[in-house]
Amino acid sequence: QVQLVESGGGLVQAGGSLRLSCAAAGITFRINGMGWDRQAPGQQRELVAVITRGGRRNYLESAKSRFTIFSDNTKNTVYLQMNSLKVEDTAVYYCNVEEVMSDYWGQGTQVTVSP
User: From the CB of residue 8, how many other CB atoms can be counted at a distance below 10 Å?
Assistant: First the structure.
């Protein structure tokens, strides 16, 4: 049973930082990529960051200068370091793991940035 456990969300003031983590348990096959999506109330879901097996990284334009995605392959864990947080970063953040056979999603972790 594959399960993605997210942590690190919370309430932070604008300008602050958070580090999200996502540990994937029960992975049987090779992971092709990991990433983070987010969805704010009334907004469409959007890709925030992704890291491929080869180490390529892509970011949402508004996040690329402030966020960093990185992974620990020995632990099947992906992180999202978020600096200089803005109110508009407020959303539920979902971890995604693309495995050879299937895609998996975390339960989501709430990030709230106050003015």
Answer: 16
* Angle, CA of 68, 72 and 73, to the nearest 5°: 130
Q: Do β-strands 10-13 and 109-114 pair in parallel, antiparallel, or remain unpaired?
A: parallel
pLDDT at 84 over 90: yes
Is the per-residue pLDDT at 8 higher than 90?
A: yes
What is the biggest distance separating any 2 CA atoms in the chain, rounded to whole angstroms?
Answer: 43
- Which amino acid type is present at position 35? G
Which candidate, 35, 62, 65, 38, places its Cα nearest to that of 49? 35
DSSP SS3 for 29: coil
Going by the DSSP 8-state scheme, the letter that residue 101 receives in this structure is S
At 71 the pLDDT is 94
